[in-house]
Design brief:
Its main location: endoplasmic reticulum. This protein is 35% helix and 19% strand. By secondary structure, it is α/β, with parallel strands linked by helices. The chain has a six-stranded mixed β-sheet with strand order 2-1-3-6-4-5.
Amino acid sequence: QVVLVSGHLDSWDVGQGAMDDGGGAFISWEALSLIKDLGLRPKRTLRLVLWTGEEQGGVGAKQYYQLHKENISNFDIVMESDEGTFKPSGLGFSGSAEARDIVKEIMTLLQPINVTDVYDTADGTDIADWMRGGVPGASLHDDINKYFWFHHSQGDTMTVQDPNQMNLCAAVWTVVSYVIADMEDMLPR
């Protein structure tokens, strides 16, 4: 059984892609690194995917889906961060009402950093096929007021990244992915 965390490498035009979507790739990598560094071993596999070709029609994600869809029932949740890594506010979630209640309970663990909201739907080109197939999905919600200042521009460099905000995003990704991966049962479909 698999809990999938992801971001994509998006620097295809004028920018470096540091915020879009290098930040999402980084926090996904960091989540697994933190879990490993803490010596935690969840009941399910945590899998990191750094997608390619999102801007070219999601070809990397479509290929991955084609290769793994026969095991769709073993995917517990698919998570994608693709709106930068600014100050997080919570998660977008798509799935059953029962699964949503579980995710809301998990998000209460993040009260100390004031990131507890669960929004109505998850977004993500790279996880869309999985969600259409019935797998619960989550996407990071953060303060996107400045997102389009940098999105696909020369300004999308590492100087845009605020290390403190990225750490908060990584904390959200780490807590949610680990707790879901370590629950007794998979999220209800």
